[in-house]
Amino acid sequence: MKPPKVGKRSAIRFILDYIMNIEKTDDSLIFGMNCNPQFAYQEMLLTKNRFHKTDGRQYCHFIQSFSPKDNVTPELAHEIGQRLIREFRQFDGFEIVMSTHSNKAHIHNHFVLNSVNADSGIKWEQKARDLYLLKQKSNDLCAEYSLSQISFADKKESKEDWKSALENNIRDCLGFCTSRAQFFHAMNEFGIDVKWTNERKYITFTLPDGKKCRNSKLLDAEFFSKENMQNILDHNRDNMRLIAEIPDLFLDSMRAAGEILNPSNPDYLMFKDLDKDLSALEGRELLIAIERLKSDYALEVTRVKNEKERRKKKNALPDILETSADFMEWYLNEEEELEI
Predict the structure, then answer these.
(1) Is the N or C terminus of the chain more exposed, i.e. has fewer CB atoms within 10 Å?
(2) Within-domain flag for 131
(3) Any idea what the CATH number is for the domain that residue 63 is in?
(4) pLDDT tens profile 177-213
């Protein structure tokens, strides 16, 4: 069980997307306590707004890992994770999304907890006593299933432990940052210094205790390559720019958010006194929540652009193929002729 990490409001959407990524888990291994995972982001924001607690700590993200030696199945890990958050009394009333990942050698559960209690409005406090009791509860459940337990005795931290914690911090910051400068600042909030220049072959991370690690030495070195990390930052920046530059998409997003938050009056967000500058919009976080809508729009724009370029080439398909249905008909006819 790793300690909770403090989140940022702008990152809640992205951390939820990360733990529910279909490449790491599937729908049967996603669970929401006091919320619907599909709309957890919106529900968490509503809770914060209802109790007027939108500043400070926004969420906690913690991980429950199982030893590879135990050969735990994803289904069993998911069952234990559900019991952990349901039976740990300090979590009563909090909105929590949980997912089980099996994309690494060790099965592990991710938990994202809204910092504001949906019942009482009390904010989650990271007390040492609560963390101790949470680890003890996890151990008790593992013992019940005859699984390995973590030790509370002082011991030297393994290289895998601190590298895994470093990776989690990097992933969190990559989730919402749109530039290297913003990424450096976000990592500094974890006490981690980053040296990333065009001249250096590798990125170097320096932890608060002085430990240093190159990105090539991380457990998932391919994901943390300079090229992939830069691509992630560029993708985040393009998403934000897409929101600002396409008014129609902005209005569609506001209405879509309104339908989720207030079905009886889906246009209520559109008629608020909103500034034209997106950075001043109260609903900016809601726009980020409609990322799938943005992605679909961008994909369609790219598809149309590529189609036009293909038509300009010598070997482009004939102009008569105006629709996908026409294409399929043409393709099947060609296939039949080849078979004959």
Answers:
(1) C
(2) yes
(3) 3.30.930.30
(4) 888 998 998 888 778 999 999 999 999 999 988 899 9
